[in-house]
Amino acid sequence: MTSSTMMSRACAHVSEYADQLYQGLRDSSRTSNIRESWIRLSSQTYPRESIFAAAFVLLLLSTAAAYIIRRRMIGKNTARPSTPSTPALEKAASSAVKNQGREWGKWISSDFRMPKPDPYPDWSIEHTKPLPYRPFRYGPKYNVTMGLRTLKHVDWIELDNHYPRYHADKARRIRERGPRCCRTAPEAYPAAVELLEELVDYLPARYPTLYKRTDVGIDNLWSGESFDIVTRPLPEDPMQTCARLVQDDLAIMIEKSDSQYYLLAGAVLLAGFWRLEDKYGMPLSEIHTSGSVPQFQERLEKGMMNFFRRLRPEEMVARNNYFMQVDDNLAWSPSIGSEDAAHVSWDTAQKNRAVEHHYFRSERQSLRRLPKSGGVVFTIRTYFHPVTDISKEDYVPGRLASAVRSWGDDVSRYKGKEKYGEVLLEYLDRKHKEQIDRGLDLSREDEVRAYPY
C-alpha cells in the first residue's frame, strides 16, 4: 500500500471518528463513543499516519470543547456579544503624516464635489423617528479610542421628527445668545460660506419634502423661511444660517502654518455641557485637554492629529459618544451650573435624583474636509431620550449597566457618575432582570442590535 493511500484512509477514519467524538462531547452520557473511537483509531496498521491522525483528533477535541463551552456561556445572563474591531482608517492614523507636497496652512483646492444624494426613503417630519443610536459596549473593559467608522456621503446629515423642537430651540438660542454661540473668524469665513453652499446643495436633494432649492438659496417648506446665500454681504454669520438648516451643531477646524487645527468657526447651540466661547480659537489638542478628556494625551492625541492631517475631501467618517444627564434641558444642562458661570462642573449637580430625571444623551459626529477651503467640518447631532424610554428596548438596560460599570475612575469623573450612578444602575439592573425573566435570548443580541445601535 502506498504512503498516499494510507494517508487517505487515515484521514477518512479521522473524519468518521471525529464526528463521533463531537457527538460524544455534546452528550455526556455518550462518552463511550470517545473511548471506542480512540481505540479503533490507534489500532490501525499504519502507525505513522495514526500518530498524525491522533494529533489531529486532539486538536479537534479541544476545538469542539471550546465551542461547546462558548455556546453554553452565551446562554447565561453574563453573555456578552462581540463588538466590531477598530476600523483600519483609525489604525492608520497612528503613523506619521507628511504634508503631501504643500505647506502647512496652505490648502490646494480640490475639484472633488460631493455626489448628489438620493432622497431619504419615505422621510416625514411627522413620522420619521430618530435613529436609535446606543453606542455603548459591554464591559469589563472600557476602551478609549476615536471610534471612527466610514460614512457614506448620502448619510451626511440626519433629520427626523424631532426637527421642530430642535429648530425652535436653535431659533430661541440665536435670539438670546447668538454671538456667544455662533462665531466665524475672518480666516475661516471662506470655509463657513463653503459649508453653507454644501448644505444648500445637499438638503433639498436628500429631504425634498422639507427643503427646496431656489435661484438664490433655499426655502424651508415647513417653516416658511427663505435663505439668500448669494447677496453680499450675507444677512448673518454663515455659520448661524447653517445652524438654522439642520439639527446638528457645527464646527470648522482650520489648519495653520504650525500644522495644528484651530476651532475658528462654529454654531454650537445645543451642546449641553460645553460652550463655544470657551473653546473658540483653541487648537484641537487644547480643546480636549482643557476639557479634561480622559487619556487624551496618552491614547488619542497623536492618532487624532495624524487623522486630521491625512483626511481627504473624498472621505467622510463618523463617530458616536454618550453621556448621562440629570435634567431635561437639551441646549444646556443646568445641573452642572449656570451657562453664564465662570466655571461649570458636575460638582454642582444634585446627587441621586430619581431616575425619571435621568436622560441619555448621545452624539453622532461626522467629519469631512471641504474641498475648496480645506476646512475640516464637524457636524454634531445630539440624540436626547429619557433613560426610562430607552430601557424598554431589548438588551439596552443590561448592556448600558455593563458599560457604566466598565468606566475607570477618570471616565467616571468626566461623565459625572458619582452623581447618578447608584440610582441609574439599580434601575438598569431591575429592567435587565425583567427582560431575562420574560425570556429574552441574550445570544441573539448581535443579530438584533449591532454597534452603534
Primary descriptors:
about 450 residues, seven-stranded antiparallel beta sheet, 10 strands, disordered N terminus
Task: Report what the structure shows.
By secondary structure, this protein is α+β, with helices and mostly antiparallel strands. The chain has helices spanning 3-26, 31-42, 47-74, 88-91, 163-181, 189-206, 238-245, 276-279, 284-290, 296-310, 387-390, 396-406, 409-415, 421-437, 445-448, and strands at residues 149-150, 182-184, 211-213, 217-220, 226-228, 249-255, 261-267, 316-325, 359-369, 376-386. The strands form two sheets. It has a seven-stranded antiparallel sheet with strand order 1-8-9-10-6-7-2. A hairpin with a 5-residue loop joins strand 4 (217-220) and strand 5 (226-228). Helix 5 packs antiparallel against helix 7 (238-245), helix 6 (189-206) packs parallel to helix 7 and helix 9 packs antiparallel against helix 10 (296-310). The longest helix is centred in the first third of the chain and has 28 residues, at 47-74. It starts with a helix and ends in a 5-residue tail after the last helix.
